[in-house]
Write a structure and sequence with these properties.
The chain is mainly alpha-helical. The radius of gyration is 27 Å and the shape is rod-shaped. Helix 2 packs antiparallel against helix 8 and helix 3 runs parallel beside helix 9. The chain has nine helices and no strands.
Length: 261
């Protein structure tokens, strides 16, 4: 698995708290600079920045919508893959019933360990070292299951059994790679940094365009809404932690334990 970047390793609430404070500071900085300019040159009050502010806020809204859409589509794709994996594993478990008891016990024993490894892979959360260890363990167990199946196929004249299980087992193995790639596919950090910069620049220009006293309620609401939106985007983009996670889809894999009773 790829190493997490600094932004991905940082706590979501910490990142959003810093952004919230920066929006406040940049608004105040813009306001103070404009007040200083007005004191030196009173004619500066006639300068209207509403067109520039409107354009920048429109660009900020567009980038927020684009980034939210990226994070949301990736989240939905990951959720579908978890459910697909649960279905693939369940199909393999059911089709082991075609085999004689001795082979069936071998296959099911390995598959039970495999299910536990896949559950642990998700439950490792943001601990990448643990996630990698469980991913490799599951990969080893899937190869072991494949070896048992191929060994049985060499000595069995009834190809119906293996022809039913081989495609299902192959799909079970392949979906883990797809799921891993989907988990590593996040909104690029460069887009997130651009979003942070636009938030700060918008706050600065809004403060600079304010010729009257600061309405802290309005500024606080502006900073809060921007921060909450960014919080949602970051939360969607991190399926292993946060409020928006894969706990519900992953429950489908946990339920596979009941098939071994």
């Amino acid at each position: 698995m790829v190493d997490l970047t600094l932004l991905q390793r940082s706590p979501i609430l910490g990142v959003v708290a810093v952004l919230f404070v920066l929006i406040f500071l940049f608004y105040l900085l813009g306001y103070r600079i404009r007040q200083g300019v007005i004191r030196r040159s009173p004619d500066e009050t006639k300068i209207d920045l509403s067109a520039i502010n409107g354009t920048l806020l429109g660009l900020l809204g567009l980038l927020l919508a684009f980034t939210f859409s990226m994070a949301s589509s990736r989240f939905d794709g990951r959720r579908q893959l978890v459910i697909e994996e649960a279905n693939d594993i369940g199909t393999v478990i059911l089709r082991t019933d075609f085999f004689p008891d001795s082979t069936r016990r071998l296959l099911r024993g390995t598959l039970q360990e495999y299910v536990e490894a896949r559950i642990a892979f998700y439950q490792a959360g943001m601990d990448i070292n643990k996630a990698v260890a469980y991913y490799l363990k599951a990969d080893s167990l899937s190869k072991q299951t494949w070896s048992v199946l191929t060994e049985y196929a060499r000595h069995d004249n009834i190809t119906t059994r293996t022809s039913e299980l081989v495609p299902a087992l192959n799909a079970m193995i392949d979906v883990t790679t797809t799921r891993r790639a989907a988990g590593e596919s996040t909104v690029p950090d460069s887009i997130m940094y651009l979003l942070f910069i636009l938030c700060c620049c918008s706050a600065f220009l809004l403060g600079y365009d304010n010729k009257h006293k600061i309405d802290w309620i309005v500024v606080g609401g502006f900073a809060l809404m921007l921060s909450v939106t960014v919080l949602t985007i970051l939360d969607l983009d991190r399926p292993r932690g946060g409020l928006i996670n894969m706990d519900v889809p992953n429950q489908k894999i946990i339920e596979l334990r009941e098939m071994f009773d």
